[in-house]
Design goal:
CATH topology of the largest domain: D-Maltodextrin-Binding Protein, domain 2
Structural class: alpha/beta
CATH architecture of the largest domain: 3-Layer(aba) Sandwich
Order of helices and strands: HHHEEHEHEHEEHHEHEHEHHEEH
Number of domains: 3
Oligomer: single chain
Helix content: 40-55%
Radius of gyration: 24 Å
Distance between the termini: 53 Å
Number of helices: 13
Shape: elongated
CATH superfamily of the largest domain: Periplasmic binding protein-like II
Largest sheet: 9 strands, mixed
Length: 309
């Protein structure tokens, strides 16, 4: 048994299919099957149930735990010795929500590539829940996400605070409330009472994302039967619908500022709700015997760019 065998087994456990795992490893299915059979023979017990899809036996679950630990140690070993050799190169896998990535990463990646041209960046995009699983499964090196609670084995570094704001197109306010629109907005600002918008249609965001979840929760708490025009997991789609006067939508302020043009910003009203809808976005990476310099360099550069704004 060697490290390669453990790597192969971890791939089979992930794909639950010999053909798919072999393709991901760039080896033949016969080579992969031989390695797995060799491990089972050496350990004296079956690690897999040859069903469709493949299933791990209890012994297989135990072996997978060790295999993943060895993978992490082996990765740390290679990264530390790369730093000792002063070789600033490799693959850095960064996980981030799609829209947050579109708003934040172009500037960061441009600056990072100029400083560390031999580091290849791979972006992994998805919901916060998906990204956290990717990190724990070893498919991502660094996350930029909201972590509602401390995660065992994950080191967190604060990045910035996001504030959720409610956007309503001026045309929609005029259509529903006419001359009363300005007074209504002032009333909402003072007590922060969303129930005053009972006649306004809303656009709902992704329940699995922190912004969508908080926005949907505020609407549900304030309105017994809210008018829902549309729901989407894509905040950019919701922003476009909002600009067209289709409904009001919640969106993180940092995304509003970076995704909407000055002309578009003038066409909407932005309502703030202060501390109630603020949350922290952090960097997160697995705690390992050694933290690769590419991770610390990326987070330090991102922080410096954010603080300039």
């Amino acid at each position: 048994m060697n490290f390669l065998s453990m790597k192969y087994f971890a791939a089979v456990a992930k794909e639950k299919n010999f053909t798919h795992a072999a393709r991901a490893l760039h080896i033949t299915q016969q080579t992969l099957s031989t390695h797995i059979a060799s491990i089972e023979k050496e350990l004296g017990c079956p690690l897999l149930l040859r069903t469709t899809p493949l299933q791990l036996t209890y012994q297989g679950e135990v072996f997978l735990r060790y295999a993943r630990q060895f993978e992490k140690l082996y990765l740390s070993l290679n990264q530390e010795f790369a730093d000792l050799r002063a070789e600033t190169k490799g693959l850095l896998r960064v996980g981030i929500a799609h829209t947050r990535g579109r708003a934040l990463l172009p500037e960061i990646i441009e600056a990072y590539h100029k400083k560390y041209p031999l580091i290849e960046l791979q972006l992994i995009e998805g919901t916060n829940e998906f990204l956290r699983h990717s990190l724990l499964d070893g498919d991502a090196d660094l996350l930029i996400a909201h972590f509602p609670v401390e995660m065992p084995g994950v080191r967190l570094q604060p990045f910035y605070e996001e504030e959720l704001v409610l956007l309503i197109a001026n045309r929609l306010l005029d259509e529903i409330y006419g001359e009363k629109a300005l007074g209504l907005l002032q009333q909402i600002h003072r007590p922060q009472d969303l129930s005053l918008l009972a006649d306004c249609p809303f656009l709902l965001g992704n329940q699995e994302d922190v912004g969508g979840r908080l926005g949907n929760q505020m609407i549900a708490e304030a309105l017994v039967s809210p008018q829902i025009t549309a729901q989407s997991t894509n905040i950019e789609t919701l922003l476009e619908l909002c600009l067209r006067g289709t409904g009001a939508c919640f969106c993180p302020d940092v995304l509003v500022r970076r995704l909407l043009s000055p002309v578009q910003l003038q066409s909407v009203q932005m309502l703030r709700f202060e501390e109630r809808v603020r949350y922290r976005i952090s960097f997160g990476w697995l705690e390992r015997p050694y933290c690769w310099s590419a991770i610390s360099h990326f987070s330090a550069l991102a922080l410096s760019l954010m603080h300039r704004k």
